[in-house]
Structure formats: structure tokens, C-alpha cells
């Protein structure tokens, strides 16, 4: 019997994002709260005669630019991976959405192949490897909400998953991360301590205390993204923000019926959307199925 391995690859949102400094190499130091949403891709891995990557969305390249391909090459180079696999990704998380879909896929593949091939790498080993693929890959490796500093790659586990409903909507616009950062004005001394706000202040106060610095860069070029944030408040969100470098926008809702109404409204308007339960915890398990 052949075997099939299955795992879900979850998206993230950013609870506040302060851009602190522009570094000489063009990167930026930031601080941000990372938490998970239920929007996920499903990844299937099967042993095969040759390595193959198949995406359900044929617009997504499967060449060396794909983070999954890069993750496999890293395992071959650093962990001695010799086995070959057919990897199929059922894509649900939109690309260019600020939800970390590519990074999440890479982290999930590192976790899956480590288990399937018995490579014996620890979570810290995988996180260190993942850091070479992208700043937020270590967050997805650990699978816990946390506070990101440095380039967003230094993650302090922090219990900041909102105990409320999160509705996330994609405005059908791809936002390029380099472009978002190119036009941002760093501020090394934010008005409020982001970590303190996330840990101590009620969600209904976040609209006065939290901000995503990249909104001032993205909204003038993609007006629809800013309009979508306004819509979330119109629909009754306690707090709304763009996630990461955009273009997705999310709203946090205290009541289920208000969240469901917002979710359904975005669907009716023709946007991809997702609703996440209060206190959501992602299932990062890797499951084997005989076929």
C-alpha cells in the first residue's frame, strides 16, 4: 500500500506592526504581534520516483522561486535528504495578501518531510533552517502566537491569540512587500508599547493604540484596501487593520452574529474571506493515510 501524508498550512495576521528602522542593507527592523487565523492550505506528500510540486492554483510558479522548492533543497543540503516526493498543495490562502501563505507552506513542508523521512531535526533546528527562507518562517514552525522583533524573525511566544472572532477579507489586489516598505517612514519610538497593548489593553481600545505603519504606504496606492478597513468598522468591528504588507484586511468582532454578518457581506461583495473562532489554535500535526 502507498502512503499519503497530510497537514494543514495556516495563515497569520499581524496585530499591529511598527517599522522601527531602515537598515543599510535595505531591510527594516520591526515589532509586531503574530497570531493565527483558520484560513489554510492543505498539503499532501507522497513518496515518488522523482521530486514534483503541484499547486492547485496553476498561476503559482513551481520552479526554484517557490519557497516549498527552496525548503526541500535546504533539507537536501543541510539534513541529507535523499528521498523523493510528490507534493500537492491545495491553495486557499491568497498570494500577495500579507497572510504569510508562502512562508507557512515552507514551514509545513519542513515539518512534514522531517517526520516522513525521519531526519531527526528538532523544532529549533527547523526554525533556524526556516529563517534562511523568510523572516516569518520560524513563527510558522513553532505554531504559537508570538511577538516578533528584529526583521520579524525573532519570535517571543506570547499568548495574544484574540479571544474574539476574526474576519479576514482579501480585496483581490496583490501587494508587493518591497514596495510597501520602500515608501514607509520608520519611527524608532512608537507612541505606545505594542507588547503592553496586546497583553493588557482590551480589544475595544486597540483602534486608538495599535497601528500598522505600512498602511500609510499601501493605502495611497491601493485605495480599495483602505476602503475595506473602513467597511470593517462599518460592519461593527472593534478593531480593524491591514495584515502585514497587505493587501488583506481583518476585523476583530466580539459577537458571533456580527462577525458572521461581516463575513457573509464580504462574500456577497465578491471577496475571498475567512472567519476564525475565538482563541483559535492551529493543528500542526502531520497525519499518515494508507491509500
Could you please describe the fold and organization of this structure?
The structure is a single chain. Strands 1, 2, 3, 4, 5, 6 and 11 form a seven-stranded mixed beta sheet that branches. Strands 8-9-7-10 form a four-stranded antiparallel beta sheet, covered by helices on one side. About 45% of the residues are buried. The chain has ten helices and eleven strands. The model has no long low-confidence stretch (mean pLDDT about 95). It folds into two domains: about 5-160, Ribosomal Protein S5, domain 2 (2-Layer Sandwich); about 165-275, 2-Layer Sandwich (Alpha-Beta Plaits), CATH 3.30.70. Strand 8 and strand 9 (about 250-255) form a beta hairpin. The protein has about 290 residues and is an alpha+beta fold.
In short:
With 291 residues, the chain is α+β, with helices and mostly antiparallel strands. It is built from 10 helices and 11 strands. Strand 5 and strand 6 form a beta hairpin.
Which topology of the largest domain does CATH recognise? Ribosomal Protein S5, domain 2
State the total count of DSSP E strands.
Answer: 11
Structural class category = alpha+beta
Sheet with the most strands, sense and barrel status: 7 strands, mixed
CATH architecture of the largest domain: 2-Layer Sandwich
The percentage of residues in β strands lies in 25-35%
Rg is 19 Å
Amino acid at each position: 500500500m502507498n502512503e499519503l501524508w497530510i497537514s494543514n498550512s495556516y495563515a497569520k495576521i499581524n496585530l499591529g506592526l511598527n517599522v522601527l528602522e531602515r537598515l543599510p542593507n535595505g531591510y527594516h527592523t520591526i515589532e509586531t504581534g503574530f497570531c493565527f487565523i483558520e484560513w489554510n492550505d492543505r498539503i499532501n506528500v507522497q513518496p515518488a520516483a522523482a521530486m514534483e510540486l503541484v499547486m492547485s492554483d496553476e498561476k503559482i510558479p513551481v520552479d526554484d522561486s517557490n519557497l516549498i522548492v527552496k525548503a526541500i533543497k535546504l533539507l537536501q543540503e543541510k539534513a541529507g535528504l535523499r528521498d523523493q516526493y510528490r507534493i500537492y498543495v491545495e491553495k486557499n490562502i491568497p498570494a500577495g495578501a500579507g497572510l504569510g501563505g508562502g512562508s507557512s507552506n515552507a514551514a509545513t513542508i519542513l515539518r512534514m518531510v522531517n517526520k516522513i523521512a525521519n531526519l531527526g531535526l528538532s523544532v529549533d533546528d527547523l526554525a533556524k533552517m526556516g529563517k534562511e527562507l523568510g523572516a516569518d518562517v520560524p513563527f510558522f514552525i513553532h505554531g504559537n502566537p508570538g511577538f516578533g522583533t528584529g526583521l520579524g524573525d525573532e519570535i517571543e511566544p506570547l499568548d495574544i491569540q484574540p479571544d474574539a472572532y476574526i474576519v479576514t477579507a482579501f480585496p483581490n489586489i496583490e501587494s508587493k512587500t518591497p514596495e510597501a516598505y520602500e515608501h514607509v517612514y520608520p519611527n524608532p519610538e512608537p507612541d505606545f508599547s505594542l507588547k503592553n497593548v496586546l497583553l493588557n489593553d482590551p480589544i475595544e481600545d486597540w483602534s486608538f493604540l495599535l497601528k500598522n505603519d505600512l498602511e500609510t504606504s499601501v493605502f495611497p496606492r491601493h485605495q480599495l484596501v483602505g476602503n475595506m478597513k473602513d467597511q470593517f468598522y462599518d460592519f461593527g468591528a472593534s478593531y480593524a487593520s491591514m495584515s502585514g504588507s497587505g493587501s488583506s484586511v481583518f476585523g476583530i468582532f466580539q459577537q458571533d452574529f456580527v462577525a458572521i454578518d461581516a463575513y457573509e457581506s464580504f462574500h456577497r461583495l465578491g471577496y475571498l474571506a475567512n472567519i476564525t473562532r475565538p482563541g483559535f489554535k492551529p493543528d500542526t500535526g502531520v497525519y499518515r493515510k494508507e491509500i
